[in-house]
């Protein structure tokens, strides 16, 4: 799968593992995804071979047993800011990653065998919700795939700066999950003052999620910072075409006028 294909797919048609591979190879084209594909396929075969758990908690334990237990994949607490922690191929090779990358693996594996699972977007963190016939379970992939209570999830969200914190968290779409992975890298690039790298990542995100207006806004801002006014104008125009918010449309028009003035 090429990154350019992702923006054309319906959200439900996105294969998260293949999308993660495409993102990893955007930075490391030489990276070999073979081990990742074999591992996920092997996990799915193991789950299908067993008597399938009916409950969400049973399914959650089985997922954690394979991913965190047998494969040893857990949170990258020692080098959290390493860009490889959101590179899905590298996560498998190194055995550790960020919450969003690990959560993607749990969700992708569960769905591959027909189980219902979602990544939940908490402030500063991502956890996984697994549903079964009689209950729903929460997993923290960053903490060795441990099961957590909803109260603990609320505590994690509060610690991450979420106010007000709700007891019910909204699941992320496939596209939101992928954008969250790239956003992690872009935030670190901006904090280092690496504007060209941040721009490349926002270009990547607008390919993945072309209808998400906020991405075009930030891309245009970065393009202006680098003096690429023609590119900024194109990004703002693309944003204008995707927004249905009248106030935002006026804001974009103001920004376009500011770009024109800067060139006069």
Integer count of domains: 2
The total of helices stands at 12
In the sheet with the most strands, the strands line up as 3-4-5-6
Termini, distance in Å? 43 Å
Gyration radius from CA atoms, angstroms: 20 Å
Q: Give helix and strand order, one letter per element, not per position.
A: HHHHEHEHEEEEHHHHHH
- Uncertain segments are none
Main beta sheet strand tally, sense and closure: 4 strands, antiparallel
Task: Describe the overall structure.
By secondary structure, the protein is α+β, with helices and mostly antiparallel strands. The chain folds into two domains: 3-159, no CATH class; 174-263, Tetratricopeptide repeat domain (Serine Threonine Protein Phosphatase 5, Tetratricopeptide repeat, Alpha Horseshoe), CATH 1.25.40.10. Helices cover 59% and strands 10% of the residues. It has twelve helices and six strands. The strands form two sheets. A four-stranded antiparallel beta sheet has the order 3-4-5-6, with helices on both faces. A two-stranded parallel sheet has the order 1-2. Strand 5 and strand 6 form a beta hairpin. The longest helix has 18 residues, at 174-191. The mean pLDDT is 91.
